[in-house]
């Protein structure tokens, strides 16, 4: 059986290699702290295996995670000098390789989809599934990336096998600590849930809707997702709270909604909120700055008239298909 | 009820633009303490939460190959392909970009677009160029409108396309959170399929608004010209 933990170890090894590269990168003014960030992150990925299997204490990992947050708050990881091709070289390469450049990019979704849709159902002798159950997507993404990388190396023939690692680091350094923010927000969701934030919001929202009205409950979940996302700037942060408050207890447990539809559409209702909020700076304020707009809220103003009717669509889709 | 203070921490922290990682960590600790968890339990929650949600970060294994093909001119090749659409109006061009952005995001190719990669160097210049063909020198209101809508085409296309691809963070977050918290076994592909109806609505609503943009620009350009004539008199 192909296990998902193998791919977490692959991620862990990638982060540790990045840490070693960063440590040797004298052009990075923050190389020690940055290497510490990527190194701790990489080791945490491997250590996580033992935490999940209850073979090692979780609090140790908890300390490491808070350490990562403190490093991020202190301005790490920083970026080194970019060592990649110049625009002129890229034009030259683009002329030489043409549309072949798209092939590795296309391999990723195609292979990932094959794993998610087909290999997920394949059984080995003895009835065990080929892929660890519930993890077909992650395994597919891992395998797809490896295959795409092999194809890329064969097609493009870079001088050294370290080139993709350097290019990967270039992208990762651009993303920085934001790379693990979604994971932190998922963790926050768990803590909110354990300490009863969802239930508290549930008590507040409970008084807001007529008992037993399905359409009111659906609207509350969707509009709540949008409003919470506007406040928090991130649908990922709103999802665990509104799901614990309304989505799970009311829509799934009480009204027996189909979980996949309720949660998928609920998240998209949150995205309608993201379109409207300056708190989602990377999506709304950064583009305005990049385009040198006079009005930094220009993109939001262009998006609000789409977000409102689309939120209505989400309510209708969930009401029609989940129940 | 006091536990809702943890939400206030998030709101205030984000509003003051404190580093998001610190805000989230602080909110988690506040929620745990008010919720009556011991410090060790809070640390355990951070550890368990991190270990259980590692799937959200697996997308980084795609970075080496994406970086590699970028190094060899992916964006230039994409620009070359798209520049064959030169004859279009601003609205139609942005509507087509919305369709391409949403379609590629649905295939998991989210890195093909983006404000820095595509809108600034490619989409906005083409959209502004199409408008200049039509109105001559662009009044500021028209320029701002085009910029806002160019950015919006990218963002709407991304948001309501990416969720149709199975291996995107938001879907993995849904399955990760719901599976660990409620003991369900949701397959990511089911979540992805149910993103399709909303995706179609988004394409229709925003696509229509982009197509109507040409008329709005006509009006803005006419008004600006009239105002100029008034001033000249």
From TrEMBL, chain A:
Taxonomy, superkingdom: Bacteria
Coiled coil stretches, renumbered: none
Transmembrane annotation, as ranges: 6-23, 35-53, 59-80, 101-120, 135-155, 175-194, 214-239, 260-280, 300-322
UniProt keyword annotation of Secreted present: no
Keywords: Membrane, Transmembrane, Transmembrane helix
Name of protein: Putative membrane protein
Natural source organism: Kribbella kalugense
Automatic annotation (TrEMBL), chain B:
One matching Pfam family: DUF969
Residues spanning the membrane: 56-74, 164-185, 191-212
Keyword entries, A-Z: Membrane, Transmembrane, Transmembrane helix
InterPro entries: DUF969
Name the UniProt record assigns to this protein: Putative membrane protein
Source organism: Kribbella kalugense
